From TrEMBL:
<dbReference type="InterPro" id="IPR045430">
    <property type="entry name" value="EAD1"/>
</dbReference>
<dbReference type="Pfam" id="PF19955">
    <property type="entry name" value="EAD1"/>
</dbReference>
<dbReference type="InterPro" id="IPR035897">
    <property type="entry name" value="Toll_tir_struct_dom_sf"/>
</dbReference>
<keyword id="KW-0675">Receptor</keyword>
<dbReference type="Pfam" id="PF13676">
    <property type="entry name" value="TIR_2"/>
</dbReference>
<protein>
    <submittedName>
        <fullName>Toll/interleukin-1 receptor domain-containing protein</fullName>
    </submittedName>
</protein>
<feature type="region of interest" description="Disordered">
    <location>
        <begin position="324"/>
        <end position="343"/>
    </location>
</feature>
<dbReference type="InterPro" id="IPR000157">
    <property type="entry name" value="TIR_dom"/>
</dbReference>
<feature type="domain" description="TIR">
    <location>
        <begin position="347"/>
        <end position="479"/>
    </location>
</feature>
């Protein structure tokens, strides 16, 4: 983990990735001792070498960093390492993160922008003055914030807000965004197309120098550089792309790297991965699962000076609370009764899961993962209930599904009843340019004919966490049309010796 929050103080430690990268770059004893001396750790404080490997030695150094025997140790060590390896992205990113975490935030800024989606896919602003403030205040109340905790100002289609208490930062990033998504799901229950209101939300740390104690003084912060950056995050292309790529999502969120470090990343374990339940268990706040966030690059205008420099932020699509999907009312005069979730006549399914009866457990696993992304999924085992005609239900789903996801195994290839499902998707996109047919291989099999020529998401032989990561990478590629990595690939040539 990058740090742990103890009594409000952030204790920094090197991440596992940083330890491995340091061991690759500095593996000779004299190089390591020299680097540590430059970082401020006297040789008398350094652990003995005693025949350890470079990785083992750097782990021992990391224990000193975590125990604060070297103040700001993570930042100092990575800064010295980056001087020798100036293009190393692991060192550069670690310096940015450690610098951001060192600025203990005394408040959190949020910017909310309301938009609607035109039929051609473009996003246009929506002047939603009363409803926007009402839903933000209601979401804050539902996640336990005191009345008036968010001091806000609204201008036409957007809202800027401030929470002066930094202790609420994990709540705002986690529970607040989930409640906001739930409130929107209820509000948009029977609204289609341009009638649906969708929100882009940015969260960033407020200036740590002077946080106002009254709403009358908030304008000074709203006119400051931190607020300008928060507004800029709302307009990040990656956030709008995420909203366009997930047409059923009502809310997309971007969190600045500095705020991400002190909230979400602080919940990860030593491997850098934590499930939602584990994160909530450590922080007491739901919605802080690092696996739900994706890093995106940001470009700031030259006239917007930010210290420390910021080159990336983190985006996520919060999952609405279960109560919202069931029609839990919100305190808004504009609220209507929600539309049932499985209503493909008015709103097409994002994915039809085509699965053999013997692989229903795989179908359920995949459907659940897709719904975590805010997607509308048809799975026969879930959506055909007593009284329904399964043949008619499947015919409707085939006609109204944007994509068909095939759960590929020998069971599937031997099941004649599923052939019509994937062939309908193939005939609607025979060239594959729209990626209407998405095979996911879950067991060893040898598809023939047209199925053999379609690239699949391969989960064969993977454990739970690896399969989940591979599946979501594949779905990201399906949405974006390319499998671009989130960070620069390592330099394939020889590295210079220091």
């Amino acid at each position: 983990m990058a740090g742990s929050n103890l009594g409000g103080m952030m204790t920094q430690r090197l991440t596992d990735e940083e330890v491995l990268e340091l061991a690759r770059a500095f593996y000779r004893q004299n190089e390591i001792l020299s680097l540590l001396e430059r970082a401020g750790l006297d040789r008398s404080q350094q652990p003995g070498w005693s025949g350890q490997s470079a990785q083992e030695y750097w782990r021992a150094i990391n224990r000193l960093v975590e125990s604060e025997q070297l103040p700001d140790g993570r930042l100092r060590i990575l800064t010295e390492a980056q001087r020798d390896f100036r293009a190393n992205r692991t060192f550069i990113r670690g310096i940015e993160q450690a610098s951001a975490a060192a600025l203990a935030p005394r408040g959190v800024l949020l910017a909310v922008d309301s938009v609607a989606r035109r039929p051609e896919g473009t996003l246009v602003p929506v002047d939603w003055r009363l409803g926007l403030a009402t839903i933000v205040e209601d979401a804050a109340r539902r996640c336990g914030l005191a009345a008036g905790a968010i001091v806000h100002r609204q201008r036409d289609t957007d809202l800027i807000g401030l929470v002066a208490d930094d202790a609420t930062a994990p709540v705002l990033v986690g529970a607040f965004t989930a409640e906001l998504a739930g409130a929107l799901a209820t509000y948009n229950g029977e609204r289609l197309g341009a009638e649906r209101v969708r929100l882009r939300l940015a969260l960033h740390v407020a200036d740590g120098t002077s946080i106002p104690v009254s709403s009358a003084d908030a304008d000074a912060v709203f006119d400051g550089p931190a607020a300008a950056l928060t507004h800029r995050l709302v307009d990040t292309p990656g956030l709008s792309q995420l909203l366009r790529a997930q047409p059923t999502a009502d809310l997309v969120v971007i969190v600045s790297s500095s705020l991400y470090e002190t909230t979400v990343r602080a919940t990860t374990g030593t491997t850098g991965v934590a499930g939602a339940a584990g994160a909530a268990g450590r922080t007491g706040v739901r919605g802080l699962d690092p696996a739900a966030f994706r890093e995106v690059a940001i470009e700031l205008p030259r006239d917007l000076q930010v210290s420390p420099a910021m080159h990336s932020a983190w985006v996520t699509v919060p999952r609405p609370e279960v109560g919202a999907r069931a029609g839990r009312p919100v305190d808004s005069s504009a609220t209507d009764a929600p539309r049932p979730a499985a209503d493909a006549e008015n709103r097409p399914w994002d994915y039809l899961i085509s699965v053999a009866d013997k692989d229903t457990d795989w179908g359920a696993w995949i459907a659940w993962e897709l719904e975590q992304r805010g997607l509308l999924v048809h799975l026969q085992a879930w959506d055909v209930v007593p009284g329904n005609n399964p043949v008619i239900q499947m015919d409707q789903a085939i006609q109204h599904a944007e994509k068909t996801l095939v759960v590929l195994s020998e069971n599937y290839l031997r099941a004649p009843e599923v052939q019509a499902q994937w062939t309908a998707a193939w005939s609607a996109d025979a060239t594959g340019m729209k990626r209407r047919l998405v095979p996911v291989r879950v067991a060893e099999c040898r598809p023939g004919g047209m199925l053999r020529g379609i690239t699949c998401i391969d989960l064969v032989g993977l454990d739970d966490s690896a399969a989940r990561a591979a599946f979501h990478r594949g779905i990201d590629a399906v949405i974006t049309g390319r499998g671009r990595p989130d960070s620069a690939p390592p330099f394939p040539g020889p590295r210079p010796r220091s």
